[in-house]
Write a sequence for this structure.
DNA sequence: GCTTTCTGCAACGTTTGGTTGCAGATCAAC
DNA sequence: GTTGATCTGCAACCAAACGTTGCAGAAAGC
């Protein structure tokens, strides 16, 4: 019954910039702070900080390669995050349906 | 292809305290700033500010009743939010599966 | 009436997302 | 190998968001 959401994971994907970064990394396979910041409305520094946060919760990996740092999404962890999103959404849906059911039952009783 | 997420709606449900408030309102049908703050680890003031935010994006309604303010969830809007969560989650899932499929195809080609 | 209780407003502190500026490290070209 | 371009991290700083406390106003209960 409990939603059992990992707050750290949620807050990591709660930021819109970080969500777009994950989308970019998914679409292009990998990216560096510089390449990512070129397609985002924020500076390289901001991107870099976000990557540290995403790395800390395990949503991405780093592979230092020479002078640049190549980041990739951790597929298992992102799948876990996606599952949590779906879980919260479906929990809300279920409760809403239950409420709607109760409301309709009252309605029927009044119409009787 | 685009996820088309409403950033305001998302950031409203991105805050853990607001998510718990929505859960409480769903479970108990309604609540006031005072009753909600009793079951949350924050003060009434914080709850009150969050309710304003939730109201602004339409996730809750207010019904002033004497000296207290009764808040309820807007079912349609919450359903919309739940759908967005599920949407982002399934989009990620789909992309992950596609990547996994490509990886396996490469694997098969190498094994040939 | 008087007290209690629910509320909003204002001031304040802390964290977080963002910026700019600067210095270190690596690659590439001469 | 020196020089120059580029990728990076660190530090200082700013603004917005989340949280607090303190106070004043309005409605209920006595």
């Amino acid at each position: 019954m409990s939603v059992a959401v990992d707050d750290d994971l949620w807050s990591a994907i709660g930021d819109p910039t970080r969500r777009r970064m994950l989308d970019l990394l998914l679409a292009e396979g990998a990216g560096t702070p510089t390449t990512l910041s070129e397609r985002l409305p924020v500076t390289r520094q901001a991107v870099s900080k976000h990557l540290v946060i995403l790395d800390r919760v395990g949503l991405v990996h780093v592979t230092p390669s020479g002078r640049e740092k190549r980041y990739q999404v951790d597929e298992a962890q992102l799948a876990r995050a996606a599952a949590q999103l779906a879980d919260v959404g479906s929990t809300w849906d279920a409760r809403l349906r239950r409420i709607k059911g109760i409301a309709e039952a009252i309605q029927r009783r009044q119409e009787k």
Observations:
- The domain at 7-111 of chain A is CATH 1.10.10.10 (Arc Repressor Mutant, subunit A).
